[in-house]
Design goal:
By secondary structure, this protein is mainly α. It has six helices and no strands.
């Protein structure tokens, strides 16, 4: 695949991600994390902002939430983007799926610590933090599934396009 084809594919994934975040879905079962990981691995440097733009656009429709939590959500995605971008020269389908698993865990740990720290819902001690994590487990199941399903879908489509186009490699820039 050439750069232009990858950019077009990523834009299609980004538009799909915005739509999926806006239509009814199980809590946290969206392609947002998968888009971030795919973009980090595949997009040229000057397009690396695409998944964060999709997040901003969908958040404009969904509304904002507590600033500290929102900043942590955006920071979590930026960390995932950086990790996948740094790993791009070692890309494999397995590494992409492994990155999805690690990213789901990172997102869970950071964002639920932020809910504990900034929302005022939980007591400001270890038991409050544990309560925050315990309350988030049902959301983590869906988030984890979303990361895996959509990452498999995005990277699978990418791999299929490569196979059917006859091109076996892509040089990242």
């Amino acid at each position: 695949m050439n750069k232009k084809q990858i950019i077009i594919l990523a834009i299609i994934f980004a538009v799909s991600t915005v739509i999926m975040r806006l239509v009814p879905h199980p809590w946290n079962f969206t392609p947002m994390g998968a888009l971030v990981i795919f973009s980090g691995f595949m997009l040229p440097k000057k397009w690396i902002w695409l998944p964060l733009a999709a997040l901003v656009i969908s958040d404009l429709f969904l509304g904002s939430y507590e600033f500290g939590v929102m900043a942590t959500v955006y920071s979590s995605y930026a960390i995932m983007l950086g990790i996948s971008f740094a790993s791009r020269s070692h890309y494999s389908f397995g590494l992409a799926i492994g990155s999805s698993i690690a990213s789901a865990v990172i997102f869970f740990i950071l964002t639920n610590a932020a809910v504990w720290a900034f929302s005022g819902i939980y007591s400001p001690d270890a038991s409050g933090l544990l309560a925050s994590y315990a309350a988030a487990i049902p959301f983590f199941r869906n988030s984890f599934a979303g990361y895996l399903v959509y990452s498999a879908m995005f990277f699978g489509v990418y791999e299929l396009v490569i196979v059917y186009s006859g091109q076996l490699t892509y040089e990242h820039t």
